[in-house]
Amino acid sequence: MDHILSIVLFTPLVGLLVLLFIPSSNARAVKLWANIASFAGFLVCLPLIFRFDRTKDFQFVEKADWIPSLGASYHLGIDGFSLLLVVLTALLGFLAILSSWNAIQIRLKEYYAYFLLLQVGMLGVFMALDFLLFFVFWELVLVPMYFIIGIWGGPRRVYAAIKFIIYTLIGSVLMLLGILMLYFEHYSQFQVLTFNIADLLQTDLSGTVQWWVFWAFFLGFAVKVPMWPFHTWLPDAHVEAPTAGSVILASVLLKMGTYGFLRFSLPLLPDAAKNPTIVNIMAVLSIIAIVYGALVSLMQKDWKKLVAYSSVSHLGFCTLGIFALNPAGIAGSILQQINHGISTGMLFLIVGVVYERRHTREISEYGGLLRIMPVFAIVFLITALSSMGMPPLNGFIGEITILQGVFQMSFNWAFWCVVGILLGAAYLIWLYQRTMLGEVPEKNTGLKDLSPREIAVFAPLLVWAFWIGLYPRPFFEVLERPVAQIVERVRPGYYAERNLRNPLASPSPAARISAPVPAGD
Amino acid sequence: MPVNFVPSGAEMLRILPEIILVLAGTLIMIMEPLTRPANKHFLGKFALASLFAALWGSVVAHANPGPAFQNMLIVDGFDTFFRILVIVVGILTVLASFQYLKREQSDSGEYYALILFSLVGQCVMAGANELIMVFIGLEISSIATYVLTGYLRDDKRANEAAIKYFLLGSFATAFLLYGIAWIYGLTGSTNLTEIRSALMDLQTSPSVMLVGTAAALMLVGFAFKVSAAPFQVWTPDVYQGAPAPVAAFLSTGPKAAAFAIFVRVYATAFDSISARWEPLIWISALLTMVIGNFAALVQNNIKRLLAYSSIAHAGYLLVAMTAHSEIGIAAIMFYLAAYALMNVGAFAIVAHFSRRRERYLQVEDLAGLGWKQPVTAGLFAIFLLSLIGVPLTAGFFGKFYIFKAALEADLLWLTILGLLTSAVAAYYYLRILVVMYMHEAGEPASTLPPPGAGLKTALWASAVGTLILGIFPSLVLDFAGRSATLLK
Fold this sequence. Notes:
The structure holds two protein chains of two kinds. By secondary structure, chain A is mainly alpha-helical. Chain A has a domain at 274-499. Chain A has helices spanning 4-20, 27-51, 80-99, 108-127, 131-140, 142-152, 157-190, 197-200, 207-224, 233-240, 243-268, 270-274, 276-299, 303-322, 327-358, 369-372, 374-388, 394-409, 411-436, 452-470, 473-490, 494-497, and strands at 59-67, 72-78. In chain A, helix 4 packs antiparallel against helix 5. The radius of gyration of chain A is 22 Å and the shape is globular. By secondary structure, chain B is mainly alpha-helical. Chain B has one domain. In chain B, strand 1 (66-68) and strand 2 (73-75) form a beta hairpin. The longest helix of chain B is centred in the middle third of the chain and has 32 residues, at 156-187.
């Protein structure tokens, strides 16, 4: 058994422990070390990409006893879906820390310590194959994020931080209830106490149990995504959080919710997930989020708030894709989650760049930046195009795949998707026009263009955006198996009925962990 | 039954911790007038040493399990668990008291002697297998704590608190005693094992109605001691008035011992009439959680806030009690251990921060502590996060086991409501964190002297314990689980 996942998981923690021993008076050393540690965190996850075998399900699996009396273990492993999110987390964690170099001036040591701790929590969420371990990491993420918003945030930071943590806590205690219900149901059928997800998948759950557990999970995940009407913490948290906090929040933290739906709600509760009532409710909530998020974005005067609401809209696409319950919808949704991580992360970084220079986020304060900051304007243009789903950028591939999946499910849903895409283009183009084009206000004439460090922050994300846009095949290949697992679980025989090639049938049937099993005893 | 009034050697070994504590307490009382004021701190060190000896004594006693003194006491895993727990609470309290007493210029042997005597009572409660012993243990423990509450003689609030605690406490104990009398009348015995068999035997079993009344009377006494609603009213006043280290002690030691005996009486003796008392405790659990958590939301005084929080935590424990299962008992044991560490830690910080005459007790006074004394504030943050129940701290697994036990006993609604109130609770603990880390430093935080060696040890020990229980809960849980299985 190799320990590469543990190494990836604990590199930030080691960085954190060393950081605690650096005197806080030496600001340069603190910054430098935090950057080194997070960069190391990114480097150690690279072998995952090269050694990943897309013909297998969970890989790099590690398992050790943790609380034997409960059947909880330290159990890590990743499939294609987790792989993408782990790499996204490692990359954005590093970029967020790099982007803070000048933005954060006070209490540096604590700031970087919280970021590194956050990194551990997020990586753990995407790696855990034990439900209790997952929950522990899930909750662990809250604490550093709470402090990051509450200490380094804007004027209403305390309100935003408390709202963020109370919303998510209430959601997650109910999720814990769902986990326990599942756990006991499994125990009553098999007389074995275990939180191992692969074992829990064997449980034969009745419709009612699935129904209630689904809603319990839903509350936990929907608050995190956030789905309408649980989204109200998000604009507050985003607007008040420091730039790097917003970046991580949008790019990674929100994905924990969609990850939860795909990893737990769908495979564990297939009957509830395909129950027409639930599917319709989820679709309606997603569509409301798409349209409402876009309309509210259109109305914003605050640059950052606009980006925050655009997240609500984009995540609506992701949840809608999930509940299309077909390979295109789910694969599109996963890809769009990555895309959203890249493009919205960049949008927040862009707001951060101008905020650092002007200390205002009012859109009306800006204008004509294209002439003063040409490089910045080009980066913003590419980001905006990526976010609104223009070819040849990443957003296009994600949205078109979701649309394809959604269309197979319902024409109406697809119609609203298109409306959402159009509105998305509208608010982004309008934003671009108001800030980058037109006359240059006096106050903006002295602004400096991007520094090499800032370019270094954007460059990897831009490359990634073009990569997905121009050559998405490797991503779809990596996602093929995880998506097929979910689809086969929710709608057994999906591929066979439609004469599609079932990715699970190809070479190695040995690795099928979550394949459908005959009903329990 | 042949009565042998000379205890055997094994029996003496079984009460070794009590013997050590009584001897040490008495010695301190004798040495007190013989010690010059400058040397009083030596008595504290002596008390500390004797507590470690008692800890060793509990381990020795555990190696010789069995009943003692005609079944009056019983040494089993359950007893050992609680003995060790209350003695550890005693050690932490004594460590946290050195600096406090010196600051208040009230360093004297009485204080330590009273703590030792109170611990004797609690150890007796943990091992009592006889209602008379329950009563004696409870009284030994309580009388010492009444005095400790009013230890700062010149402080009006402390006096008020002591009187209030004493009057209400005696009243509640009277209920308990009355209940014991009823039980004796109904079953002809005060021995828990005999009561159990008398109630189990359908032929000779007395009317369920009467036994139920007796159990309800005793419930009043126990509910008072664990500060469960509707008998919780004294808690905020007493904790607020008592010196902060004493409040730390009160909220953990006597509470743990009271829960120990509560569990032993209801889960063994009254096992067969559980259908009668479970609904009562169900209601009390819900009320306690709701009152504790919602009242804490509006408190500005940290001691009152922690008092209401301690009421709320009693509510969670009652949820596990309602579950009435071995898993529930193990959950109670684990939770009390976790709770003892985090709550003693939190109160110890308050004791240190409040300064002379406990001037700084408002939540706002903590403003900026996070930047003035990052280590102290960081430790406080660990205790508060654990009280919230954030993973990787003991509080998380405490709550997790409790609600897991409740769910296993099909207490779905109690679980849901409990979980929701515990999410509400996050708000008031977070408020302290907000003030510590997100407000500009004020005068109280800027002038805080660094903690002394004793306090530092207590804080670090509690914090490390909190984290260890949060990461490797099996260490304690497995022992608790084994002891709970053997209880019946």
